Amino acid sequence: MSTSQSPPGPAEVWSSGDYADVCDRMIPRLGARLVELAGVGAGQAVLDVACGTGNAALPAAATGAAVTALDITPALLRAGAARAAADDLPVTWVQGDATALPLEGAGFDRVLSCVGVQFCGDQEATASELHRVCRRGGRIGLIAWTPEGMIGQVLAAVGRSTGAARPGASSPLDWGREERLAELFAERSGDIAAAREQVEMPATSATAWVDYMADAYGPLLRAKAALGPTGAWPSLRADLIEVARAHDAGAGEEFRGRAEYLAAVIER
């Protein structure tokens, strides 16, 4: 069932709910993992693209790197800046679009994105921009949800229910496929090292996890708001609970949803 309303822009989607709280509860160490994989260190110039509230930018700054964090959503930048100030971490915050970065070329030793650029609309333009701003000999580090993982399955179900998923159209989950990364970067860059890893997302139950995410995570919140008036939300909610249960790695009554992601380091 498709909705009659025009789809919201990315800034509207990601300022909905409480993405900072989602990161704190569900993926608190995912940005630090990307920083580790990309080999971020003191003295490097680092760019975090589609940075959100600084999930990768803050741990990168903690290494002593000179960090610039860019996002299209002003509310997330403000939240990230407040966090950086509270931790006394120097980060430069920039509002901008990942498909047309307002930055000079070859300016960064490391270019990162933690479940960020995969949600940009133009995949080719985004990949080109990541490559353009990374210095020769530098690295591009990416983490993206895979189509097969829990978040991938949740987003796919949302797309089907809202009509956002169109046959033949590109999907944010393409970034979580090794073959798509090769298509985007093989001709632009050097070696690509990619591996599938998992993060566990806690809640008291699968139902509680879905209900929390539907209130706090922008894409689910927007889907709930769009489908509620049509009466279609309960059906989607039930589907999402089944997806969560299928990925439950918890013991006993404890829910720990196992969410798979693709971690990639691309040599420039």
Structure description:
There is one protein chain. The chain has 268 residues and is of the alpha/beta class. Helix content is 40%, strand content 22%. The chain contains eleven helices and seven strands. It has a seven-stranded mixed β-sheet, with helices on both faces. The protein is globular and about 50 Å long.
List keywords for this structure.
single chain, 268 residues, 11 helices, alpha/beta
List the helices and strands and how they pair.
Layout: H1 10-14, H2 19-26, H3 30-38, E1 45-49, H4 57-62, E2 66-71, H5 74-86, E3 91-95, E4 108-114, H6 123-133, E5 134-145, H7 150-162, H8 178-185, E6 192-203, H9 206-216, H10 218-227, H11 233-246, E7 255-267
Parallel strand pairs: 1-2, 1-4, 2-3, 4-5
Antiparallel strand pairs: 5-7, 6-7
Helix pairs in contact: 7-10, 7-11, 9-10, 9-11
Number of strands: 7
Radius of gyration: 18 Å
Q: Look at the helices and sheets and give the structural class.
A: alpha/beta
Give the ordered list of helices and strands: HHHEHEHEEHEHHEHHHE
Q: Indicate the overall shape.
A: globular
**Main beta sheet: strand number and arrangement?**
7 strands, mixed
Q: With helices defined by DSSP (H or I, 4 residues minimum), what is the helix count? A: 11
Please give a quick description of this structure.
With 268 residues, the protein is α/β, with parallel strands linked by helices. It is built from eleven helices and seven strands.
